[in-house]
Amino acid sequence: MQIKVSVARCESYERDKANAAMEKVLGALGGIDGFMGGGKRVIVKPNLVMAKRPEDAVTTHPVLVEALCRQIIAAGGHPVIADSPGGPLNVTLLKRIYRLTGMEEAAKKTGAELNLNLEFEEVPHPKGKVARRVKIMKCVLEADAVVSFAKLKTHGMMLFTGAVKNMFGTVPGLVKGEYHFNMPRIEDFSDMLVDICTLVGPALSVIDGIVGMEGEGPSSGRPVQTEVILASESPYALDYAAAAMVGIRPERVPTVSRAAERGLFAAGPDGLDIVGDMDSLCCIKNYDTPAIVSASFTRGKYPVFIENMVNRAVQPKPVFMHRICTGCGDCTTNCPAGAIEMVDGRPILKPDKCIRCFCCQELCYQKAVRIYRPWLLRTLGRGRY
How far apart are CA 341 and CA 322, in angstroms? Predict the structure, then answer.
């Protein structure tokens, strides 16, 4: 059975255009009513990785969140905007993130609620592959429905971050570091992300691709005009379609390949029914993508000692740009492996401890962290997949 993925063209975040595009992309799926009935408490989970302004293209744009909330309210639902960004978190910091990312204004304009409840629960996930128990925000567990509202971006560790990866934000603040530390291999980490997504089970997934991000995403890349909004009931099929649209071979995205292996969707054009603005596809450009370490380079092709030798040769590492670093120390706080220490007010990497999660880069407000990728990794893994 084919899964519908809806595409709507939208050239800008001008409010009337955004509202029309949101109505169109959801209408092609049968309308918002089919995903959440009247009276339901609906978590709208945007990508709010850090306190960045909308024009930086790091976070889901507030005008689109506003447009979605209006659709939910019109259907009789009660939208609650909620996220748990990485790093230390308290109510004061969360309010600041909501304010700078425009979520506070989106809530005021629509009457949506902003979640400030930082409580979480550890719940069993019997069907989880690597995560059999997961710590999830209490507001998510208590909701009637969840919408994953992602941003179209590349990702230094996972290659692409979309609707599935966005569900990692339902795991509370610093707890994310525990998962990074316990599952440093990309294969295990991506399986964990799929586990979380299957546990939360978003009823609807949407991707803001009006302005996306290429290069060193999810926070240090370059904004790029892509002019689309995508939506589907399946976060897995949605990520497959979105990745393909920006020139990334979907099977190279770890979360997509893991979801396909589990049979969560049928990978390939025959498994998807693309509806809506088909002419929008001509607007999509190939994104400049980071090279990532993937076991698919050598797995099963060569003897184990050669695989290990190649893997050592291609390992990337963070490099700290001391000339623009402010010495805030956030990278040391956010490093789940304790691989960074401050020396004379500047971060220094302890390579033997680094697990290559790149939280230091992802959560650096100054963009003072670059990822060094050896020549062999760039040769094997970068470019148009």
Answer: 13
Least confident of 19-23, 101-105, 141-145, 302-306: 302-306
Least confident of 68-82, 295-309, 361-375: 295-309
**Contact 209/203 with Cβ under 8 angstroms?**
no
Which two tokens mark 346? Answer: 């500047």
Distance from C-alpha of 244 to C-alpha of 238, rounded to nearest angstrom: 10
**What end-to-end distance do the CA atoms of the chain give, in Å?**
27
- Spatial distance between the Cα atoms of 382 and 385, rounded to a whole number of angstroms: 8
The DSSP output letter for 271 is G
| Cα–Cα distance list, 80 to 4, 66, 106, 283, 306 (Å) | 26, 11, 11, 32, 51
Q: What pLDDT does 173 receive?
A: 86
- Domains of the chain in start order, with CATH, are 3-283 (3.40.50), 295-381 (3.30.70.20)
Query: What pLDDT shows up at residue 7?
Result: 96
Strands (E), 10-132: 41-46, 78-81, 113-114, 120-124
Position 217 confidence tier, pLDDT thresholds 50, 70, 90: very high
